[in-house]
Write a structure and sequence with these properties.
433 residues, 76% helix, disordered N terminus, mainly alpha, globular
């Protein structure tokens, strides 16, 4: 008979393995230099091909794959989808090394879309393994592992390029090695016996799962979740801002390349990514110590910080100085990571874990749908196919519009709460008389 670990310690091994997977899957030293690599002699692609024909494929594939992957993740109980993510990472970086031509690199972007769509398996796997009272602890461990992996990868990439004079091809070999280690690690993860939607309780192998019943339950939960005004408010900001965030980070390397061409000057993309990630982590940590009545001032705060994001993107676009571009990007990422953490906390506060997963999936899907529309109109060569500077002016305006909407809504909410507080003493006096 197989020896079983004490219940109090059973979460340690799967959590450690998942953190190890997340660390190596995120440790990709070549990623901050992707645009430079594609435009350079290794791939010899044009700016129009990279920005208007290749990068949009990631957005489209992510959107198309997200919902079926969301259902498959729960139905297959996470581990197979984590393995699929690891395999997709290997295919992506293998193609990045050896694939040539526009069509091949577009196909590579499809696999990277599969990588990002399957992230939901990584972040939800652990909830099927550990007890409810450990959710917060294991979530922080898993997210920290990916954060540290990305930071270490960015620093390594910058040091190897600037100090050791490594070629970008060699950096991609290192990235391929790292994701291969992640894939190997994933095989040792225990297979969960239950999941959040399809497998609430342990089932015999002969018992069939009624998918229509699951979909009806999801629809009922959806209506209940979004019937709350605060929930709707935070979710709307999450979806719209994440759309803009994805667009900015996807094309930032392209903007930097136009401001300071990497073929003629030394660039510090890896260092900037590492600094922005570390400072963003500090801001996220500080959220736990901020004492604000988010129910009253949340919308106003979202409006003001969204305006700061808009200003950062505007400076990136209009001030053609690479150091100001870098600094503005750092501010942009810090503010977004701060706000998305607050939004996540506000949404998750009164939700069960099942509903949190549902809301997260729906908000992400809406963000991707908006991003797809924005990409089709602004970026794609079949649409307007605008140059990178015009694109970033549109993104700055986009965040400014978000700020304006939430400022008006926030002022209305504050005034409404103030009037309600004024009316309460009057009602109390009337009742006592």
């Amino acid at each position: 008979m197989e020896a079983r670990a004490p219940r109090g310690r059973r979460w340690v091994l799967p959590t450690a393995l998942l953190c190890l997977y997340g660390f190596f899957a995120s440790l990709r030293p070549s990623e901050p230099f992707l645009t430079r690599y594609l435009l350079g002699p290794d791939k010899n692609l044009t700016e129009t091909q990279v920005f208007n024909e290749i990068y949009p494929v990631w957005t489209y594939s992510y959107l198309v794959l997200l919902f079926p992957v969301f259902l498959a993740t729960d139905y297959l109980r996470y581990k197979p989808v984590i393995l699929l993510q690891g395999l997709s990472l290997i295919v992506t970086w293998f193609m990045l090394l050896y694939a040539q031509g526009l069509l091949a690199i577009q196909f590579l972007e499809f696999f990277y879309g599969l990588v990002t769509a399957t992230e939901i398996a990584y972040y939800s796997y652990i909830y099927s393994i550990v007890d409810l009272n450990l959710y917060q602890k294991v979530t922080s461990y898993c997210r920290s592992a990916t954060l540290v992996g990305y930071t270490v990868g960015s620093i390594c990439g910058q040091v190897l390029v600037s100090v050791a004079s490594w070629s970008l091809f060699s950096l991609n070999v290192l990235s391929l090695t790292s994701v291969s280690v992640a894939f190997a690690t994933a095989w040792f993860l225990p297979m969960p016996q239950k999941s959040l939607f399809f497998h609430h309780v342990l089932r015999s192998q002969e018992e069939k799962v009624d998918i229509l019943k699951v979909l009806r339950e999801l629809w009922r939960d959806f209506l209940q979740c979004y019937s709350s005004r605060p929930m709707l408010c935070w979710s709307v900001w999450w979806a719209f801002s994440t759309c803009g965030y994805f667009q900015v980070i996807n094309y930032t390397q392209g903007l930097w390349e136009m401001v300071l061409p990497s073929q003629r000057f030394e660039i510090y993309n890896g260092g900037v990514e590492a600094v922005s990630t570390l400072l963003g982590a500090v801001a996220v940590f500080a959220v736990g110590y901020i004492k604000v009545s988010w129910a009253t001032w949340g919308e106003v705060a979202l409006a003001l910080f969204s305006l700061l994001i808009a200003a950062a993107v505007y400076v990136m676009d209009t001030v053609r100085n690479i150091w100001l571009c870098y600094a503005s990007y750092v501010i942009f990422r810090i503010v977004y990571m701060l706000l998305i953490t607050i939004a996540t906390f506000q949404i998750a506060t009164n939700l069960s874990m099942e509903r949190y997963a549902l809301v997260f999936g729906i908000n992400t899907f809406i963000a991707l749908a908006l991003q797809t529309l924005l990409t089709l109109i602004v970026v794609d060569s079949s649409g307007l196919g605008l140059n990178i500077f015009t694109q970033f002016m549109i993104y700055a305006s986009y965040f400014a519009a978000i700020s304006l909407v939430f400022l008006v809504s926030g002022i209305y909410s504050v005034m409404k709460n103030y009037r309600r507080q004024e009316e309460m003493p009057t009602r109390s006096t009337t009742s006592s008389s």
